[in-house]
Fold these 2 entries.
Entry 1:
Amino acid sequence: MKREKNTQETYAPRHLKKETVMVEETGKQSGINRPLCILLMILGITVAWLHIDSRPVKTNLTETAEKADPMPSEYRDIWLKNKAINSDYAGQIIFDSGLIDLPFVQAKDVYDENGNAYVFYTAEGETVADIEEYTGNDVYIWKNWKTGAYDRYEEGGSVFMDYRNSLDDRNLIIYGHHFARDYDPSGSKQFTPLDLLLKKENYDRNSSLKLVLDNEIRTYEIRAVLILDAREEEQLEIVSTDVNHDMESFKDYAALIEKLSVYDTGKRIREKDSLLTLITCVEHRPELRQAVICSEISRKVYTD
């Protein structure tokens, strides 16, 4: 199917519907309960509708990014290799501790760059015929970014950036599934390792990370680890691509982060910070989400 892209969406994302925000899934073998905490991550898929502003926010980092030449080959080679596999590849998220090192993709619409509709899958692996209520955030939930095939149990779909994001946004949002450890005892799939950050003793050694982009590396420090209730609209304000409405709104946003934090990291977001928010589920708590709030602390832009 090939159609003109919608330049304006007039429908609400389907996951705004409260009854579809989250479900507790069973395993692939009949009769065996293997909860896979499905991130209908889409808490966030949804939330950018609350406050969205396409105007880029000028920050000190944007204006004073360090320029370097060239990008280290270990990172550039990864980017070029993965971009050749899928043009939706957007970058790599890498914790300095090794906690997570994963590619992430971004589908900006329900249509690809050639105007062809993406293939969408339900959680059960059925192909979706009517995509009118779908968004770019639905493209990779159950899809392997390398093969394009349905993939719920091996890789658990793909890690992806919110389709509304541009790299100039004040808050970049990346989603990944969480696998319950009674399904995957290794705790290594997708964003499952983020649950280690719910314990303060794991914070210090896992507090720094980077995004490897196209000839650019952004370094971040975790400011807060939160638990959100997907049923509470106020708490979903955390998952907004625009947090720069005005000073009072920013203060409210910062206060909400402090209120929902699992523990005090000793760090705070600042008025000019560029943010990165990582979203996943909470094991066996389908109504909850874990959010990791990070502030950008440096940026290097490379030339070929």
Entry 2:
Amino acid sequence: MEEDLKEEKWYPIEDNIFHHYYNLFYRINEDGETATIGVEHYEDERFVTTIHCPQFVDGYLVTNLEEDTFTHTEWYHRYHDRLVYAGDIAYKFKGKENKEVSIAIKEGCVGIADKIFSHCSGLTSVVIPNSVIYIGNYAFEYCSGLTSVNIPNSVKTIGDSAFCSCNKLTTVVIGNSVKTIGDSAFSYCDSLTSIIIPDSVIKIGDSAFYYCDDLSSVVIGKSVKEIGYNSFKGCISLHSIFCKTANPTSHFEMPNDETILYIPIGSLDAYIAIGFEENQLVELTDEEMKRRIAELKGQQI
């Protein structure tokens, strides 16, 4: 954490009641509305038996904790084989990584911390309540037993590599408040067959769906302004991309020569102008676009 403080813009939390044991800091998250808390450790911190995780800092809702924020405390070490919460944040999972388990995150939780379930191959299902706003970086990476996930309408951010290498994940439903899909968020999800990116999404990160081998169809919502580098690279089965916006602002590399990009009628010139090849573009009427997308939604149910 001490090295991170030098590289990123962190602000001290002045009303930290445990200032004799550690200094708390926060940084503003990419959404500009929420914050992540980190810590500068002291040796005596190990004697801390209770922790205080503020709900807000300087008006920013706290949705994430740095990985080692409270891990040196006695408070943390007294928990065994369970999901540990710090305030309204699901902070750490202290179960065995390869033991089969289903998790229901408690109602009222606003954040799923970075790396919380990373490499938990025994995690077979997770229920995310409609209070969670942030799903952390690497939160579920390499959860090879996870087959489906329903991201509720409360979530606004899906972090970098959040579901990376969940190679049995076949179904993902993304709620209609998500604004950002992070870099490599679903990369190497080999079994994922289709994805519907809702109209709320503004940014799709670099390599977001990198090498999703079985991905055959994608819907890109009408509000997307940025599609990152290599977002769909290596998606060898991807034959249909439905892009709902008539005013594209972001070009992305088509995964193969057979992929067709379906676009709103009257938008052909706009897509060609930002670099797409005409032979891979097909215009659809509003009615036809809605019908094709409805068919994909039916397949996800």
